[in-house]
Every structure is written in structure tokens, then in C-alpha cells.
Amino acid sequence: MTSRDRELLKKCFLFSDGALPPDLAVEIRQFSTGQLVYGPESQQRCLGILLEGRAIAHKDETDAVLNLFTPGDVFGAAALFGSQAAYASRIVAKGKCRVAFLTEAAVTELLQANPKAALSYIRYLSDKIRFLNEKVLIFTSTRCESRLASYLLIRQEGGRVHQQLSGGKLASLLAVSRASLYRAAEQLESAGAIRREGKEWIITDGQALLRFRAGGGETPQE
What we know:
The protein is an alpha+beta fold. The chain has helices at about 5-10, 105-115, 115-140, 145-155, 165-175, 180-190, 205-215; strands at about 25-30, 35-40, 45-50, 55-60, 65-70, 75, 90-95, 95-105, 160, 195, 200-205. It starts with a helix and ends in an 8-residue tail after the last helix.
């Protein structure tokens, strides 16, 4: 592992406090566009850390995007110590990317030796549970505006969502028609909850968006 790789690894939550062991057992692999990075057919359970490039998560063989990974992001953390052997999603390279893999044994050794890393891991999993609870709100709502509002509140960073998905793929992710999605976006915008500037979706009134999420002022999704 090069000094540059070590600096890239520090973007990961596990090593954000500088707790990067000099003898960390890690395997670094490179992938090209469309190549499977990790999935149900992977033979060894690992924690993956994206060092460079981007990757996307799909469910099974579908085109629906579950997540987008950028440098410093991880995958496999929730499943690493689980009872099920197979990883549920398929991680695919979106362009050239490099990934660091840590085996279950390597992560166990790290967590046992470093309490700060263990706390960071627990904190990450806690945030993951909160995120999944928020996603449940998306799919239990019968209203398109509520689903879209929940999605934006989950994805926002600093009041902004950089929309990577096309309208069709976002509609597929929210399980609504494209026409319903466009009407919902227009309704949120006309209510002053959001403003769209190209691929940037800006939350202009967080309270209004929360009301939409709760079901206020909506029309049923198709």
C-alpha cells in the first residue's frame, strides 16, 4: 500500500481520527466501467472502501440504483458480521475506480485494537439504521409528494441534493410514474419547499418539505 493509498483511506470514517495502523491488511483492486466490484457471488465477506472513482449499487440484475459511492464511501459494513453469507446488492464500477478490501478478520483485529475505530463503526451502523428507517417512510407512503420529500430529506447535504439520476430512474427508485414524479416536483417547487437549478435541487423551506413528507397538501401517486 502506497503513501497515497494511505491518504485516500483516511477519507473513510474508520480512519477519520488518524487511527490507520501501519500494518493494516488490505487488498487494493482496480475496476473498469461496468465491472462487478462486489455482489452476492463474491466468495469472501469484505468491507470495501472506495479510494478513487465512482461505483453504484443495484438490486439484483435491475437497473434501479440504490446508492452511489464516491471516494471514502464504504460498502459491506452492515453485512460483514451478519449471519447471511451473501451480500444483497451488486456494486458496479461507474468508470475506472480503485477499491480497498478488508476481510472480516482484518476488520475484527482493527476494532479490537482500536476503541475509537470501534465507536466509529457503531456510529456508522446507527446512522445506517436511521437512513433505512427514513427509506421505509418513502415506500409506505401512498403519496408521490411524500415519497419525493422523504427522498430529498434523506439525500440532502447542506440543504442541497445533487441529482445524479435521470427522471426515469428516480421515478423507478420511488416506485411512481414519471408523470407523477414531475407533478410532485412542480408541487413542491410551487409551494416554495424546493428550487431546481439544473441537477441541483435546493431545499428552500425545510419545514414545508417536512409537512409534505408527513402527508400535507398532496395528491395520490399513480
